[in-house]
Specification:
Length: about 550
């Protein structure tokens, strides 16, 4: 019988017979100690069995989070043990067992990261002088724990951190490479010659994406953890930089080629610049060759830097195109010197004029940029190139006194047209001036019969003439100034009365302009009357805008 059981039997008998119960302090102390030992060694056995079990876990199956959770639970149980046990050697051993393994857990967690590659394990092997056979299917946690990990803890942590950083760099690099393995050029149709163009918007997007990728690669290149991928990063920086430069040059060549193709392929200018036309024919063949190559290799990077074709051919084409453009610029300059009004025309518009010079009727779209308000010309129905009249934007027509044959060099017959237009306008103005002197002159009829600008000149010349007649006779005829002022008022009322009639839009605008001008003229003369001006040499008159027909030059001043 155990001492405790004997004690319980004897003490029970003493109570039964009413005897004093004998106390055994040592026995009670022993009982308490046994209870504490049972708790301590029960936890100790759990810890030993659990921790030893960890060593048998295969490395690729290790769950560090679960291990750390279980160890934290054991630590909590240790803290809850009675204070009396905390000085016992068994407790100290138990705590040391938990703490030692727990100290390795953060390091093990870092080492178990998926970022760890063979090169990182090799570095740890060199550091710890211990071989890790991590590729073995039987490689266990105990094989890791045999190495002096804690001794080189900081260095191993640096290796693990580097592994995570390198994995991030590798992921971004792979993303860039994957993106540019699928990027392809988009081609556009050029006239009826096929897909001979890079589409502008799509190509601009490619260049923008390339700039973004170069920014990413630039940040990777400056990262201190890039060592394993540095060569590949540099390679792709060179690829994308070279591709960007080639695309920019490609688009520059394309724009020049389009511009000059319209000039040298099938146009009249090619006949006048045969050497440049021959040069452009060779350029055109090379351009078609480039675009055929691009169709065969549509991938952006592969097409641009896959071989040296574009890098060698594009600069040569650009140089040749610039020679053609320089010659063309010199040609246009000569044409402008021959017909100075071409200086008001842009290069593309002038090229279109010169390129279609063989068909005189194509000039219609460019007349406004060459002449002041000549919108159209009328050609003879029977003689194709014969110009009979000029027509303004408003639809007013003036017959040419001298008809023009639109044949030969365009700058020559345009100069002839300019001269003929000036002559016919002078003739109309002279005719209008003579009509002002007619005794049967009627203002409204006159204004309806003549073009708006000529009618306006006529109204201003009439006002100047009548005003000067009145002032020159004012000293002898004291009423003439007032009479003339009333005459101008009557003229104004006539103009106003016309606007009450049914008029076309053009006629209404014309007469409203007449009224505006004549109100101003009448106000000026009314002020002269009020100031008693009686001489055409008076400053109040000479400071005004006056209109005369100069017979020598046959123009209004």
């Amino acid at each position: 019988m155990l001492p405790v059981e004997k004690y319980e039997t004897y003490s029970g008998g003493e109570e039964l017979f009413g005897l004093p119960v004998t106390e055994y302090p040592e026995l009670h102390k022993t009982k308490r100690e046994l209870t504490l030992l049972q708790k301590l060694y029960g936890l100790y056995n759990d810890v030993i069995n659990t921790v030893n079990g960890y060593y048998d876990i295969l490395w690729h199956e290790v769950d560090i989070e679960q291990i750390m959770s279980e160890l934290a639970d054991f630590q909590n149980k240790c803290r809850k043990l009675p204070k009396g046990l905390k000085d016992w050697e068994a407790f100290l051993d138990l705590k040391k067992k938990i703490d030692d393994f727990n100290e390795c857990c953060p390091l093990l967690e870092m080492m178990a990261n998926k970022s760890m590659e063979k090169r990182h394990w090799t570095r740890i092997e060199d550091l710890t002088n211990y071989k890790f056979d991590i590729e073995s299917e039987t490689f266990q946690l105990r094989d890791i724990m045999k190495a002096p990990l804690l001794k080189y803890k900081e260095d191993i942590e640096d290796i693990c951190v580097a592994a995570v950083k390198e994995r991030d760099i590798e992921g971004k690099l792979k993303q860039v490479i994957a993106e540019w393995s699928t990027q392809e050029f988009s081609f556009g149709q050029f006239k009826t010659r096929g897909e001979l163009l890079l589409k502008g918007n799509e190509t601009a997007e490619i260049v923008s994406l390339m700039e973004d990728s170069l920014m990413i690669l630039g940040s990777l290149l400056s990262n201190r953890y890039n060592a394993p991928f540095k060569a590949n990063i540099q390679k792709w920086v060179a690829n994308l930089t070279g591709t960007t430069e080639i695309i920019e040059q490609w688009l520059l060549v394309q724009n020049l080629w389009i511009y000059l193709e319209a000039v040298f392929v099938g146009g009249d200018i090619a006949k006048q610049l045969p050497q440049e036309a021959k040069r452009f024919a060779n350029i055109d063949k090379s351009w078609a060759k480039i675009m055929a190559y691009a169709h065969e290799n549509p991938n952006v990077v592969q097409c641009c830097v896959g071989d040296e074709m574009l890098a060698q051919l594009l600069p040569h084409l650009l140089e040749q195109l610039e020679i053609c453009q320089k010659s063309l610029t010199g040609y246009l300059e000569k044409k402008r010197l021959l017909f100075p009004r071409f200086f008001f025309v842009s290069d593309p518009a002038l090229l279109e004029i010169l390129g279609q010079a063989s068909d005189s009727h194509t000039i219609q779209n460019h007349l406004l940029s060459v002449f002041d308000n000549i919108r159209y010309v009328t050609f003879d129905e029977k003689i194709y190139d014969k110009i009979l009249e000029i027509i303004s934007q408003e639809g007013e027509t003036v017959d040419l006194v001298t008809t023009v044959m639109a044949q030969g060099n365009v700058e020559n017959w345009l100069a002839a047209l300019l001269k003929s237009a000036q002559e016919c306008v002078h003739f109309v103005i002279r005719t209008a001036s003579m009509a002002l002197c007619d005794p049967n002159f009627k203002l409204v009829e006159f204004l309806f019969n003549y073009q708006a600008q000529v009618g306006l000149l006529g109204l201003q010349m009439l006002w100047t003439k009548e005003a000067e007649i009145a002032m020159s006779q004012a000293r002898s005829d004291k009423k003439i100034m007032a009479t003339t002022d009333q005459k101008f008022l009557d003229m104004l009322n006539q103009l106003i009365e016309v606007t009450t009639r049914e008029l076309t839009k053009m006629e209404r605008t014309k007469f409203e302009t007449y009224i505006t001008i004549h109100v101003h003229q009448r106000d000026i003369f009314h002020d002269l009357v009020m100031m008693h001006v009686k001489s055409v040499s008076d400053f109040e008159w000479t400071k005004q805008s006056r209109f005369y027909l100069t017979k020598i030059t046959t123009c209004v001043r």
